[in-house]
Amino acid sequence: MARDAGLEELIREDLGDGAGLSEKAMFGGWAFLLNGNLLLGAREGSLLARLGKGNDGWALDLPDIELMVMNGRAMHGWVRAGADAYGDDGLRRRLLDGAIAFVETLPPK
Question: What is the pTM of this model?
């Protein structure tokens, strides 16, 4: 999959310049990290959000959001939001806030 510069820019605008944020190429897309822990991913047509196991039910109940599957393996605690979902500013903000809330519970790397 290719990178999605438009989605990457939306995420940067939403995240701002918070302490501990970094970015790097990963999984054929672009990854956003918080204190060294994977937070979000942006790939052509999808936003990946790390909500944590047991914290993703609310998101999975929404249209155009599904459980992330990598190499045929379900990645519980991660969701993949399609363009209709991440294109909604309020929903994208909820996904980002949920990812930040979870990743802030992890020890820094």
Answer: 0.94
Tens digit of each residue's pLDDT (9 = 90 or more) over 20-58:
999 999 978 999 999 999 999 999 999 999 999 999 999
CATH code for the part of the protein at 5-103: 3.90.1150
Query: Letter for the amino acid at 101?
Result: A
C-alpha distances (whole Å) from 39 to each of 27, 57, 73, 80, 89 are 13, 18, 19, 13, 18
- Helices 5-15 & 89-103, crossing angle to 10 degrees? 60
Contact (CB, 8 A) for 58 and 67: no
> What type of residue sits at position 89?
D
Query: Can you give the length of the chain in residues?
Result: 109
Sequence ranges of the domains in the chain: 5-103
